[in-house]
C-alpha cells in the first residue's frame, strides 16, 4: 500500500512570481541513509524546452555510502543518438539544513543544489534544484520526480505537479522519461572503476575529511589501469560554493606523477599498483570547506582514475 505523505511545500496555495528560495521547503526530518539506493527518473521539469528526440532514456541515479561515510554513486542512461549506455560518477554532499544537499558531478566537475522536498524513501522522491539565481530569487529551476520503480501511480504524479506549480515552475516543461525492456545495468563509472581502494590518513568519519594546518596529508590509492601508462600527471580541482576553481598543479605536488606510483612508470594495463602522495597543509591556507577532485592522467591526457572528497581545512 502506497501512503502519500506530503511536506508543507504543498500547503502553499497559488504562485506569486517570482518565487524566492524561502518558498522551497525541504523535508525537515530527511534521512540520507534511507535515501540511498537506486532512483529512476519518472518525470522531470527542464529549465528550457527539450526536443524529446534528444532526451536520454532509461535514466536513473544510484547512491551508496562508502567506508568514510561519504555518499558516492553515479547516473546512467541511454544516449538517444547511439542507443548506448553511459555512466558518470556523482557525490551527494549534505549540508547543515535537512534535505538540502549538493549533487557533485565528477565528470563535468560541476555542483548543483539537490533539495529533497518530499520522499517516502520506498517508492517516490521529489527533488528541486535552482540552476540560476539572482540574490535569493530562483530564475531557472529543475525538478525531478524519482521512483524506486520506473513508474508511479497517477495520484503521485498529480501531487508532484502541485508541488512544482506552487514553486512557480512551468508545467509545459514537464517531461516523462522513457524506459525500455533492456535498461542499462548497474555498475561503477569507467575511470572510477580503476580505483580498488583509497586511504587518507586523516579523520573522515563525519563524511568530511578534516585537514589541519602544519600537518601532512597522505593519500594512498590502489588502482588497476585499463591501458598501459608510460607517463602520468596529477591534477587537483577545488570546488567552492558551486564554483569550479582552476586546477593545479597543487603547491608541492610533482609534475611527474610517475614519482608517486610505487615502482614508477611504465605501468602495464591490468596490473595492480599503488599511488601515494603527501601534501603539507600550510598555515597560510584559508580555513574553508570545499570538494577536492583528484585525477591521475596518462600520456594521452586520459583519466586513469579520479575521485572527489569533501574536505575542511581547520586550524
From TrEMBL:
GO CC annotations on file: cytoplasm; extracellular region
Subcellular location(s) of the protein: Secreted
Molecular function as annotated in GO: lipid binding
Keywords for the protein's UniProt record, in alphabetical order: Lipid-binding, Secreted, Signal
UniProt cross-references to InterPro entries, sorted A to Z: Calycin, Ig_E-set, Lipocln_cytosolic_FA-bd_dom, ML_dom
Pfam family, one: Lipocalin
Higher taxonomy: Eukaryota, Metazoa, Spiralia, Lophotrochozoa, Mollusca
Main localisation: secreted
GO biological process: lipid metabolic process; response to reactive oxygen species
Similarity comment: family membership: Belongs to the NPC2 family.
Name the UniProt record assigns to this protein: MD-2-related lipid-recognition domain-containing protein
Domain of life per record: Eukaryota
Gene3D superfamilies: 2.40.128.20, 2.60.40.770
Signal peptide per UniProt: 1-15
Domain MD-2-related lipid-recognition residues, every copy: 181-311
Amino acid at each position: 500500500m502506497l501512503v502519500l505523505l506530503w511536506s508543507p511545500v504543498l500547503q502553499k496555495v497559488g504562485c506569486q512570481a517570482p518565487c524566492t528560495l524561502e518558498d522551497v521547503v525541504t523535508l525537515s526530518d530527511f534521512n540520507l541513509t534511507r535515501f540511498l539506493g537506486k532512483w529512476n527518473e519518472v518525470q522531470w521539469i527542464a529549465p528550457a524546452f527539450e526536443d524529446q528526440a534528444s532526451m536520454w532514456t532509461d535514466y536513473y541515479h544510484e547512491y551508496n555510502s562508502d567506508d568514510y561515510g561519504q555518499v558516492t554513486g553515479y547516473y546512467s542512461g541511454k544516449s538517444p543518438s547511439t542507443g548506448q549506455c553511459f555512466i558518470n560518477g556523482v557525490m551527494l554532499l549534505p549540508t547543515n539544513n535537512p534535505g538540502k544537499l549538493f549533487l557533485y558531478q565528477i565528470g563535468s566537475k560541476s555542483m548543483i543544489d539537490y533539495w529533497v522536498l518530499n520522499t517516502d524513501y520506498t517508492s517516490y522522491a521529489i527533488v528541486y534544484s535552482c540552476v540560476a539565481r539572482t540574490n535569493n530569487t530562483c530564475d531557472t529551476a529543475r525538478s525531478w520526480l524519482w521512483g524506486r520503480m520506473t513508474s508511479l501511480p497517477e495520484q503521485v504524479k498529480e501531487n508532484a505537479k502541485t508541488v512544482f506549480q506552487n514553486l512557480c515552475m512551468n508545467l509545459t516543461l514537464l517531461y516523462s522519461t522513457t524506459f525500455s525492456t533492456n535498461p542499462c545495468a548497474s555498475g561503477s563509472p569507467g575511470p572510477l572503476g580503476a580505483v580498488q581502494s583509497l586511504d587518507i590518513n586523516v579523520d573522515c568519519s563525519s563524511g568530511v575529511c578534516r585537514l589541519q594546518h602544519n600537518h601532512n596529508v597522505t593519500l594512498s590509492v590502489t588502482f588497476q589501469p585499463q591501458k598501459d601508462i608510460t607517463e602520468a600527471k596529477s591534477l587537483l580541482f577545488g570546488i567552492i560554493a558551486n564554483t569550479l576553481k582552476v586546477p593545479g598543479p597543487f603547491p608541492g605536488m610533482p609534475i611527474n606523477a610517475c614519482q608517486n606510483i610505487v615502482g614508477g612508470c611504465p605501468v602495464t594495463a591490468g596490473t595492480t599498483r599503488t599511488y601515494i602522495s603527501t601534501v603539507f597543509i600550510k598555515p597560510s591556507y584559508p580555513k574553508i570547506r570545499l570538494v577536492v577532485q583528484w585525477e591521475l592522467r596518462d600520456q594521452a591526457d586520459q583519466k586513469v582514475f579520479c575521485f572527489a572528497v569533501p574536505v575542511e581545512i581547520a586550524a
